[in-house]
Amino acid sequence: MALVYVVEDDSSIQEIERMALKNSNYMVKVFDRASSFYESLENVLPDIVLLDIMLPDEDGFEIVRKLRSDIKTSKLPIIMVTAKTLEMDMLKALDGGADDYIKKPFSVMELLSRVRALLRRSSEEDIKQLKVGTIMLDDERHTVITNDELVVLTLKEYELLRYLMINEGIVLGRETIMHNVWDTDFEGESRTVDMHIKTLRHKLGQSGKQIRTIRGVGYSIKNECEA
Length: 227
Known about the structure:
Distance between the termini: 28 Å
Largest sheet: 5 strands, parallel
Low-confidence stretches: none
Strand content: 15-25%
Number of helices: 8
Radius of gyration: 21 Å
Number of domains: 2
Helix content: 40-55%
Strand order of the largest sheet: 2-1-3-4-5
Order of helices and strands: EHEHEHEHEHEEEEHEHHEE
CATH superfamily of the largest domain: Response regulator
Structural class: alpha/beta
CATH architecture of the largest domain: 3-Layer(aba) Sandwich
CATH topology of the largest domain: Rossmann fold
């Protein structure tokens, strides 16, 4: 369960964010000023920060600058949630190190979607090597090896395999795969997934059996020893 720090001095907006996140199974801790936020960072680092710009003791731009200059918090995911709607403010925030920028008033569903996307992106960026059964994927070298043999994949085959391996043991629907690998939600293109799974299994040889078809749902990858 991810921990979210909400730094917001408007109590009504703070409560909206807190309840939306809590109802989506996130742990949430709220702060109405920078000083208490900094104190908490010394004890526990969150998985993500929702940060207002206009705070009573320090503005959000300066907070981001300090977080990015500290090795302990330099990669901390940060979404700025603010009433500042000018393009120059958004550019200042993003150029200063914020990962995303949401303008008030905001949709709760949009907020949650942005949080999920940033958490997913952050966790995936930390993964350099993956191993599931006899399949090894090295993301730095962009290579796949199975049974001591190098497997040559197309870009989409590689991205598809990586997405399956990151979600080892999880059943992924075709639409979910299309959204995350092909960046589209068009259901009519789901046949594309089936064709790529077929060629991926073929290229992986015996290790291709680790990719399971879940009838009527989609696909999953597991350690073959767990079959």
